[in-house]
Please model this.
Amino acid sequence: MVEQKLFGVIPPLLTLFNRDGSVDYKATCKLAEFLSKYVHGLFVCGTYGGGPLMTEPERMKLVEKLTETLQNKVPLVVHIGTTNTPEAIRLAKHAEKCGAIAVASVPPYYYHYSNQQVLKHFTEIVDSVSIPVYVYNNPKTVGYGISSELLKNLEAVGVKGVKDSSFDILVLEDYKRTCSKNFDVVLGTEAMFMIAHFLLDIQAFIPGLANAFPEIVRQFFDACMANEVAQAKLMHEKILKLRKIAYQAGSSNMGVLALLHIRGFKSGYPRLPFEPVSEDLFEKMRAQVSEVFCGDIPAIEDMTKM
Model:
């Protein structure tokens, strides 16, 4: 039996906050509506989505609001990763109840855990829901990575796939080689998709840049899928330029939020301890984006005004 896998452009939706630090559910849902015109799905409450910065009730309420707003326009994959198993299970059950097509989780963080403890954590999550469970490999934020041997054992207990944000093509290749053909290997960045698709037949990715430029990322994906290598390469180079601009903010999520504001989406603040980019950096980034687009930055209206 062939398992259904994720496909296409699935941005890690930015969670937008108000100036006072409360979740701006309205603005986040409007952003999701805008993205839904171009993408194949949304990855909610992950790194870009600020899941680790949010309380359990906030995360649940955001999934509920997005479900109500989107009305199945695009499927949701909900990140339920936390420091502990019981909370992750509650978030997983809630996501399933709201209609998510899958859940994903980083391994538990802060403390150091053995492979057996990580395996037990995911076994408990898998046994708690009937929708697919993905492991989210993000060694930079978690503090440790998922080895191919551990991933194979995770597949054996029912984990259906992995979102890999190691930024290491050899890790990605090792995952593909070690796990079964039914196991879903998803890339966690737009930066490597062209290489990963053509070399490893990766079919889905979680591109943070698509929060600000979903049209460009979708065009890039379509060119890759159509085997239009020259066009895909041109789009890849533009994406890398925009990523370089965003990363001046020090963190990719703050940089992409600034790019979104540069396009005219005026709502949304980060939650402390993150802060918006400075006015000087914002203007510098605006000039650089203008240069990428030869002086004409493609604008979007502030969706919260709709």
